[in-house]
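Example record

Each entry pairs one chain with its bound ligand, zinc ion.
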Amino acid sequence: MSAYTIRVYGDPVLRQRALEVSDIDGRLAGLVDDMLSTMYEAPGIGLAAPQVGVRKRLFVYDLDDDPHVLVNPTIVEAAGEWTYEEGCLSVPGLSWPITRPKQVHVRGFDLDGNEVSIEADELLARLMLHEIDHLDGVLLVERLDEDQRREAKRVLRERAMASGMGEVLASGRSPADG
Ligand code: ZN
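Structure tokens for the complex follow.
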């Protein structure tokens, strides 16, 4: 197993929609192993393929010392509302209180190609929604309310300038994109 470098805010791959996985085979198992080591090394509790630069619809997670993977996940139903302090390995060192559904029913596939159905609540539901957002090219910053988002983008822009990534962030963005 080897670890990937986690892509961070400003990397275009994080804003692209990932593609359905058509073949669940040995190569996918290798990718999943490497994603898990990357996640544990970070450390984090969830990691989506686009975060390591792979445009495939799958994510790994571990909330209970038991590694899991979900391939081609879809949200069947979401209910309730829960605000929780949320962070992201691709937006390191920052977190915000974010309101999302409290419960979610997700379907997907495991590494053997079997369909799995997960009824999740609170933290697990939050994790699923966060990772599925990654597969759709959506970062948690987009889930903030307007004032929070403006402030978050200012902080992220300053941080990018400081690390010499300003040009990456400044390119190809409309003023409305902030
Ligand atoms: Zn994330």
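Residues 12-170 form a domain with the Peptide Deformylase fold (CATH 3.90.45.10).
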